[in-house]
Write a structure and sequence with these properties.
heterodimer, A: about 475 residues, mainly alpha, 21 helices, about 75% helix, B: about 500 residues, two-stranded antiparallel sheet
């Protein structure tokens, strides 16, 4: 048996994506959905392979590659996270193809690209979570962002999708510019691009603090766009609404998770600079408040989920501000489950009626199974116990309380209550509004299986979070690290 | 056995959703739960303090969270209350027109959540089980409620969410007030740790205030009460029975279980505040209750008002007061459940609960009148009912409270005012009884049918509970006092 190393996983995904892309050009006649199934099977194989990795310590990390790349537990966890996300997204895409055909006007001609681009994005995200060098971070982010440009505006005859694509393109390019400019400043001040050596340089006390802070702020701005933190969130609602729904799900889960991993990694050196911590706290405050308040009046479920993803970014930023990597990671894992669940149901319901919340009226009568699944998703997003979402919020609040971030805790409580309002609005629509039509909704076996799995996982990790915590690895040393570095 | 008690209603609820016959399954689950509780009662050792029948599974080693159950006298009393009221609530659920399955499932989820919270000896699941009831309550009021149901459903949900998240922060602070190596969510170990090394007084004050506000919202303590009457007025009768009778008592149970034993300094510091707020409950809400023109609103407000007495018992910080509070939790739970049940039956038959429309119903519904009368007299606190015994205990406890105070102190004033509260509650209960059951009967109601034989059983069950503990309060007191003895020996 060959020894599997972490970088092989990305290479496998990359090769898979390319192969599908090439095969698609030569196989014009066959049903394009086969490529999606092939992608799912391939990614599942990679996911299985990721559990047979050589332990990190046994790899001789002598060559230069390991200056850019790490295979620590955090990155391995997020590689699996990305793979699971991509698998579910591909599953959603299969369900979504009829809509794409009707909107875009090209029934199945370009679907091969639609199915292969997520694989390339997935490879990019997998590289990104392992990146420990600014150059590598930048390249990986570009790979992700560029494939997202295409995916977002894929139904190119649809003006809303096109608008979303252009918005995402322009603001994405702008944020990239900020990121590069920040990286150059950091490089100029410290002479390094490797995060570890930057940490050493910044803690030596021999560098220009103003220059470094300026660079750090620019990098944070760039990343702020990726994770949709206030005030860099403007693109989110429009892009989320306009993009094909599976792509929206991918954006809000995969892209966001990778952004947070990078944020955690770059914050390690930056926290040694004065005022950066305060800045992150401020951004977190703005983000939770804005996300939750703006979500309150929404009537379109996709937009609602867009704003709610800003709100969740805010809770995650609270965790980041407390520098609790484990809480953030757990929250992201819970967020993956519940967001994908919500989007999966949205796709099925929206095909028949529409994306407005009022289209969900009486869903409990039309499709009790989907209504129940949505109930679980909403309960988890709102943060009710016995769902994974509650443990996520719980860990975040525990670390915020431990760090005595009183403002964050107080604002957090109020906004959580706001969240209950808009998530339960969906529940209300499903359960006690009368519905206009009573047609049952057909659910394919694959989607049903995926939804059942997501429900079980949401509830299971809401009762027994230990497997995820164990996979993330130890926490204590991280906090200790911080106390010696930043104080 | 405890695990069965918790999982039985939840499993039954899932089975009902999956397709089991709704009413039958719910009744079987509720009644078997009652029998399990009675079995626990018979095997319960009243002499030793501490938790019995304990079981525990580690859920998270990093956080020391356990899925742990165990009971002492106090929790056993709460379980008894929860299971009795569940049986009554399920029994009183008649034919439901739409989503019958979901209705029974929601009831069982509320019951399971309450039982889980009372039986948990882990702080985390203590909290989590209570929250389990949130969405079922929202749905029960929203789908099957009457009147302004949508507003009521939102109000109760948002209020309770805010309250419970304040509570959550308080619990997290409590957890973190221990030194890092000994941190645990296990209530037994928390009690031992706080007994060995008391938490610093300023920290206690913060935590106690958070717990008081958090639990206070859940219990409808005076300035945070406005969700309760509206929700209970709109809710279908079984939901109101379960929520007012059982679920609301979670907060009081929490104060007795956590705040008083672990945070004595905090309790002392905020005592004046609590006494003033509870007088707000008794006097202000009492007067508001008198002014009500509808039976359901009156019952909703009266349940808020009676919380004041229980708070008085808790605030007095001695064995007498705390035991009285525990006993009144039980007695009030039974009496308010019976009141809501009868009111719900009247609403089903007449479609109105306005006092002006009703009157003389005792002629056509003598049994309902009798049941309502029993419950109303119990709620007033007539001797012979459990409420009387517990209120007496509370008043004695409050007069000789556990704090070292001057001769003329706030507790004497509070007790005297609370005694006047009894007069207030007499006024509104008797007025309600008169305008509903006495007087000339409206012709419209001449053909009403009385409660059927089937419905008399749960009434008998509730009344029997009230009278048994009214005549033999000692059985109840003996069960509960060992829980409080360790904390209050130091004070009195």
């Amino acid at each position: 048996m060959i020894a599997i190393r972490a970088p092989y996983l990305e290479i496998a995904v990359l090769v898979l994506g390319m192969a599908i892309l090439i095969l698609e050009t030569f196989a014009a006649k066959i049903d394009k959905k086969i490529f999606a199934y092939a992608g799912i099977v391939g990614l599942a194989a990679v996911l299985v392979a990721s559990f047979f990795l050589l332990p990190e310590s046994s790899i001789p990390q002598t060559n230069g590659f390991w200056n850019f790349y790490t295979a620590d537990p955090l990155s391995i966890f997020f590689k699996r996270f990305t793979l699971v996300t991509t698998i579910v997204v591909l599953g959603m895409m299969i369900d979504y193809t009829p809509v794409l055909g009707s909107v875009a006007g090209h029934a199945s001609s370009n679907l091969g690209e639609f199915f292969s681009l997520p694989l390339l994005t997935c490879a990019g995200l997998m590289y990104l979570v392992s990146a420990i060098d600014f150059i590598f971070i930048f390249v990986a982010i570009e790979l992700v962002t560029i494939s997202f440009f295409v995916l977002v505006s894929f139904p190119r005859r649809n003006p809303i999708a096109l608008e979303a694509g252009v918005k995402y393109l322009i603001l994405g390019a702008l944020s990239t510019a900020f990121l590069v400019y920040g990286i150059t400043w950091i490089f100029g001040v410290t002479g390094e691009t490797n995060l570890q050596r930057i940490t050493a340089a910044l803690s030596s006390g021999k560098i220009d603090n103003y220059g470094a802070t300026f660079g750090a702020v620019l990098v944070l701005v760039g990343l702020g766009f990726k994770i949709a933190a206030v005030p860099f969130q403007i693109w989110v609602p429009d892009v989320y609404q306009g993009a094909p729904t599976p792509v929206t799900a991918f954006l809000s889960v995969g892209s966001k998770a990778a952004g947070f991993v990078v944020l955690l990694r770059v914050l390690q050196p930056f926290l040694m600079l004065p005022n950066i911590e305060r800045l992150v706290v401020l951004i977190a405050l703005l983000t939770v408040v804005y996300g939750n308040l703006a979500a309150l009046p929404q009537n379109n479920l996709k937009r609602l989920l867009g704003y709610s993803s800003i709100a969740h970014a805010g809770y995650l930023l609270i965790g980041v501000a407390c520098f609790d990597g484990r809480a953030v990671t757990f929250y992201l894992a819970a967020y993956l489950l519940m967001t994908l669940l919500a989007f999966a149901i949205l796709i099925l319901v929206a095909q028949q009626t529409g994306e407005e919340i009022s289209n969900f009226d009486g869903l409990a009568k039309r499709a009790p199974f989907l209504a129940f699944a949505m109930l679980v998703a909403m309960a988890s997003l709102a943060g009710l116990p016995f769902t994974a979402g509650f443990f996520g919020k719980f860990f975040i609040f525990v670390s915020a309380v431990a760090q005595k971030q009183t403002a964050l805790v107080a604002v957090g409580i109020v906004t959580v209550a706001c969240g209950f309002y808009y998530y339960l609005k969906v529940v209300r629509a499903m359960y006690w509004q009368p519905s206009a039509n009573n047609n049952p909704i057909a659910v394919s076996a694959l989607s049903r299986a995926v939804i059942v799995l997501l429900i079980i996982a949401t509830i299971w990790f809401g009762i027994y979070p230990q497997p995820i915590l164990r996979a993330i690895g130890p926490q204590r040393q991280r906090v200790a690290e911080r106390s010696t570095i930043s104080r | 056995m405890l695990l069965f008690l918790v999982l039985c209603p939840i499993t039954a609820a899932i089975a009902i959703i999956a397709g089991a016959p709704a009413r039958l399954t719910a009744l079987v689950a509720a009644i078997s739960n009652l029998f399990v509780t009675l079995a626990l009662l018979s095997r319960f050792d009243r002499v030793t303090a501490g938790f019995q029948f304990a079981s525990s599974f580690l859920v998270s080693a990093d956080w020391q969270i356990h899925f742990a159950f165990g009971i002492d006298g106090l929790s056993l009393l709460m379980l008894l209350l929860a299971t009795i009221v569940t049986v009554a609530a399920v029994w009183f659920t008649g034919k439901i027109d739409n989503h019958e399955r979901a209705f029974y499932a929601c009831l069982l989820f509320i019951s399971g959540g309450a039982i889980g919270a009372f039986a948990s000896i882990d702080l985390f699941f203590f909290y989590a089980f209570h929250e389990l009831a949130l969405i079922p309550t929202f749905l029960l009021i929203g789908i099957w409620g009457t009147g302004n149901r949508s507003v009521a459903a939102w109000k109760i949900t948002i209020y309770l969410t805010l309250g419970s998240f304040v509570l959550l922060i308080g619990l997290i602070l409590l957890y973190q007030s221990l030194p890092a190596t000994t941190r645990t969510f296990d209530i037994r170990e928390l009690q031992a740790a706080t007994a060995a090394h008391a938490i610093a007084a300023p920290t206690q004050r913060h935590i106690y205030l958070l717990l008081l506000i958090g639990f206070g919202v859940l219990i409808s303590l005076f300035p945070f009460h406005s969700w309760a009457p509206e929700a209970y007025a709109s809710a279908p009768a079984p939901a109101a029975m379960l929520h007012a009778g059982v679920l609301k008592k979670f907060g009081l149970y929490g104060l007795l279980r956590l705040a008083i034993p672990m945070l004595p300094d905090g309790a002392h510091y905020w005592m004046y505040l609590l006494v003033i707020l509870l007088l707000g409950n008794i006097i202000y809400i009492g007067l508001v209750t008198i002014a009500q023109k509808r039976l359901d609103w009156m019952l909703g407000y009266s349940s808020v008002m009676h919380m004041g007495y229980i708070f008085l018992g808790i605030a007095s910080a001695n064995i007498l007061g705390a035991t009285g509070a525990a006993a009144l939790i039980f007695a009030h739970g039974l009496s308010i459940a019976l009141l809501f049940a009868v009111a719900g039956q009247i609403r089903n038959r007449t479609g109105t609960l306005l006092f002006d429309d009703l009157g003389g119903l005792a002629k056509v519904m003598p049994f309902a009148g009798l049941a309502f009368g029993f419950a109303a007299f119990a709620a007033i606190g007539l001797p012979g009912f459990a409420n009387f015994a517990s209120e007496i205990l509370i008043f004695f406890g409050a007069i000789r409270n556990g704090w070292e105070m001057q001769r003329f102190h706030i507790f004497q004033i509070a007790t005297v005012l609370a005694l006047w509260g009894i007069v207030i509650s007499t006024v509104y209960m008797l007025r309600a009884y008169r305008s509903t059951f006495m007087g000339t009967i409206n012709e419209r109601w001449g053909k009403l049918v009385d409660l059927g034989t089937g419905l008399r059983l749960p009434v008998v069950l509730l009344v029997a509970g009230l009278i048994w503990f009214g005549f033999f309060p000692q059985t109840l007191v003996r069960m509960v006092t060992p829980t409080f003895r360790p904390y209050f020996t130091a004070t009195k």
